[in-house]
Amino acid sequence: MATVDVVTAGNRKAGSVDLDPSIFEAPVRQHLFHAEVRRQLAKRRRGTHSTKNRAAVSGGGIKPWKQKGTGRARQGTIRAPQWAGGGVVFGPVPRSYEHALPKKVRRAALLGALSHQLREGNITVVDALGLAEYKTKRITQLLRDLSLADAPVLIVIAVEDPFVERSARNLHNVSVLRVAGLNAYDVLRHRKLLLTKAAVAAIAERLGAARGEASS
């Protein structure tokens, strides 16, 4: 079982916490990362692209020239696909790119992502963030004190915390997620993870071995 130090907001040791091995020592499978990240990015696509076929393009109601006698190829409408300004053949239409992935695969990808970050030494556990006001400077100072200011950071909190979430939203390299929304893509795309002690307990409750067996 892995044990990591718990630090204060001022980067002073405040104890240690044991990490559930079923979560933070899970197998790291690259192909599951690919499948889950691809699913998440596909779901985020708006799919609003659209083109008009020959029936939807305006104009072209009259035959451009008579059928015979001109020496030119016969044409029925100037809105046919071969004409400039004509309809598009088999063009994109609005659709959803979302596709399903088994829950076990998604869970395994998330566990693998957390385990990978722990092995790389990218996880920091803080006892509490201690924000009592909306202040971006407080988040910036906190990250600087924890030596996390130079890398993209994912802050994971146990439950809703408006002070933390709003204070960090203007920082381009900082994201805040509640444990309920923790996912493989966001874990992997940040170089550092900052977890509160309460978030570690919430992750164990959501993803622990007993919970996984119950849901399978």
The mean pLDDT is: 93
What is the CATH H-level superfamily of the largest domain? Ribosomal protein L4/L1
Strand order of the largest sheet: 2-1-3-6-4-5
Number of domains: 2
The H-and-E topology, N to C, reads as: EEHHHEHEHEHEHH
Quote the beta fraction: 5-15%
Sheet/helix structural class: alpha/beta
Q: What is the C-level CATH assignment of the largest domain?
A: Alpha Beta
Overall form: elongated
Radius of gyration using CA atoms only: 27 Å
Q: How would you concisely characterize the structure shown here?
A:
The protein is of the alpha/beta class and 216 residues long.
Secondary-structure map:
Blueprint (H helix, E strand, L loop, with lengths): L1 E6 L5 E7 L1 H4 L5 H15 L58 H17 L3 E4 L9 H10 L7 E5 L4 H7 L5 E5 L5 H6 L2 E5 H11 L1 H7 L1
Parallel strand pairs: 1-3, 3-6, 4-5, 4-6
Antiparallel strand pairs: 1-2
Structural commentary:
The two termini are 24 Å apart. This protein has 216 residues and is an alpha/beta fold. A six-stranded mixed sheet has the order 2-1-3-6-4-5, sandwiched between helices. It contains eight helices and six strands; from the N terminus they run ββαααβαβαβαβαα. It folds into two domains: 2-46 and 98-215, 3-Layer(aba) Sandwich (Ribosomal Protein L4, Chain: A), CATH 3.40.1370.10; 51-91, no CATH class. Helix 7 packs parallel to helix 8.
